[in-house]
Amino acid sequence: ADDLVRSVHRILAHADEVRRLGVRTNADTPEDSARARRFGAEGIGLCRTEHMFLGDRRQLVEKLILAEGDDERQAALDALEPLQKQDFLEIFEAMDGLPVTVRLLDPPLHEFLPDLTELSVRVAVAEAKGHADEGTLRLLTAVRRLHESNPMLGLRGVRLGLVVPGLFAMQVRAIAEAASECREAGGDPRPEIMIPLVGAVQELEAIREESEQVLADVCESHGVDVRALIGTMIEVPRAALTADEIAPSAEFFSFGTNDLTQMTWGFSRDDVEAAFFHAYLDKGIFGVSPFESLDREGVGRLVEIAVEGGRRARPELKLGVCGEHGGDPDSVHFFHAVGLDYVSCSPFRVPVARLEAARAALGGERAGS
Ligand code: PEP
Ligand code: MG
Fold it and tell me: Which atom of ligand 1 has the smallest separation from the CA of 48?
């Protein structure tokens, strides 16, 4: 068994010498970061921050989103910031010296709101008993106002950042504070800030301006030069089509092929188990799910358009992919051919991505394809 492990390490070391594509990981805990590093990841390409707001902290996010005034909102932000700072500090430590792309909050909103039906029942029961429950009634009105039929196409990502004042600024401050502290302790944090669900350059610009101000403030108060790249995900078809307009405002693009596939095909990511989807596979309309292996004619075409437009507008633009396809062997060949700088995938897929990236560089086909 030891011999086998040694052989695998030798093959992967050889692959690393040959490949041109970088290989990063998707990780949002220090444990996953450390694991991915052992598998050879050269940084984090996607640190999702959604899970950091669940559990005990969900109440604070609910308060933040439903706040009735500035004071209430600020209190929730003030409580969340040190928690976020600690989250990032631990990840920067685990990934010392390597880039960490932190994606600002991108949840479907309903995950953070009280259940509408339950609230309605509570109000109805109170009314039936003849005593009005004012607090619950107010909450019900607020939740109703935010209720969405299609949360995945609703108030998510950059939209949430624009609608909830201070939310993204709080996350950026936590990133900058964590990086400063890490640096002061002799570490080498390399934060990158990524804005999700951008469809138009104006959305990115608004967040970028706010983020740069926060970074400058933190640098001044600590007297440390904490630099952070600011970039965007390309996961809305419109962003791919207007990549040349977006690139001047972004230091990097990362393709979110999960959402890009959903929005290009019009297939819900959450319903890929639906019967019609299997019928499509059975009838050979596609051989493999486009959520698993990149659909080159549609989603791939949008990636090509964005790479071309982005690089034309900004030749030094860094390009990566962090959707599930980043760890799919067949798709890795496509990303190599189209000229991305790196792929990012789950920790366990990192070795395969290293190997396939080398095979792509050598001009080889996938084994069995
Ligand atoms: C994506 O959409 O491809 C992506 C990486 O983001 P998420 O899966 O978190 O929406
Ligand atoms: Mg996405």
Answer: 9
> Which residue has its alpha carbon closest to ligand 1 atom 1?
256
Separation between Cα atoms, residue 202 and residue 200, nearest integer Å? 5
Residue found by looking up tokens 């690393």 in the block: 16
Distance, CA of 188 to CA of 191 (rounded, Å): 10
Q: Which residue has the tokens 């984090």?
A: 44
3 state DSSP class of 29:
coil
The CA dihedral of 355, 356, 358, 359, to the nearest 10 degrees, is 120
Counting from 1 in the atom list of ligand 1, the atom nearest the Cα of 322 is: 5
Higher-confidence position of 252 and 281: 252
What is the model's pLDDT at position 225?
87
- Tokens coding 320: 């990566």
Per-residue pLDDT of 73-119, as tens digits, reads 999 999 999 999 999 999 999 999 999 999 999 998 888 888 889 88
Entry pTM: 0.95
Q: Which of 28, 102, 257, 322 is the pocket-test mutation for ligand 1 (most atoms within 8 Å of CB)?
A: 322
194: three-class secondary structure by DSSP: strand
Helices then strands, counting H and E runs in the chain, come out as 16, 8
In this structure, which amino acid lies at residue 362?
A: L
Is ipTM over 0.90?
yes
Residue 368 is predicted with a pLDDT of: 44
Q: Which ligand is nearest to the CA of 291?
A: 1
- Nearest-angstrom CA–CA distance, 308 and 248: 14
Q: What's the pLDDT band for 365 if we cut at 50, 70, 90?
A: low
H or E element, residue 352: helix 350-361
